[in-house]
Design a protein that fits this description.
Organism: Allochromatium vinosum (strain ATCC 17899 / DSM 180 / NBRC 103801 / NCIMB 10441 / D)
Keywords: Signal
Number of helices: 4
Structural class: alpha+beta
CATH architecture: 2-Layer Sandwich
Largest sheet: 5 strands, antiparallel
InterPro entries: Double_Cache_2
CATH class: Alpha Beta
Protein name: Cache type 2 domain-containing protein
């Protein structure tokens, strides 16, 4: 039991160090730490709820999965479909793998690669902030979720940032995973 406070303190430090640099000026912007935490909470939630949990992510801007300028979305790479999106119900049920951003990047192909990593990963693309039409640089953290024996489900959420790289953010997520595994 003595290791838990140290592990949580380490996790807080690991997730809190980098985000504090860029987000101190905008309290309405989601931080990388919040994104990792929300995605992992969503993965655990779906693991427990199964397929019935998908509805809790859909078309509900006031749900716990929407905060500041970010939100959690759920998709299937193998089935090539958006399963749940709280702010864009028009995307639910639609193919995702051919979607390209303003810079012609295959958004979900990159997210699927990132989310397939053991501890999840980050993918960079251009996407409009909630309430805006113009695309901004977005970096999303994706992580796989085992939902009712479907191994291809992924959960994602992102930050809008012009400075951090996916590699820098991967280090934050890796450190968080290492600290969680170290906790008894």
């Amino acid at each position: 039991m003595r290791h838990i406070p140290f592990a949580l303190a380490g996790l807080t430090l690991a997730l809190g160090t980098v985000p504090a640099i860029g987000w101190a000026q905008n309290p309405d912007a989601a931080t990388p730490a919040e994104v990792v935490t929300k995605v992992r909470e969503a993965v655990q939630y779906l693991n427990a709820k199964g397929l019935a949990g998908f509805a809790d992510f859909n078309n509900n801007k006031d749900a716990r999965w929407v905060w500041k300028d970010s939100y959690v979305f759920v998709y299937s790479c193998r089935e090539d479909v958006m399963i749940a999106h709280p702010l864009r119900p028009d995307l639910v049920g639609r193919p995702i793998l051919q979607m390209r951003d303003d810079k012609d990047r295959p958004v979900f192909q990159e997210l699927c690669k990132a989310g397939a990593q053991k501890d999840g990963g980050w993918a960079e693309y251009w996407w409009p902030k909630p309430g805006e039409a113009k695309a901004s640089r977005k970096i999303s953290y994706a992580h796989g979720a085992a939902v009712s024996f479907k191994s291809d489900i992924q959960v994602g959420a992102g930050i809008y940032d012009d400075t951090l790289t996916p590699a820098e953010l991967d280090k934050i997520a890796e450190e968080a995973a290492r600290l969680q595994k170290a906790a008894p």
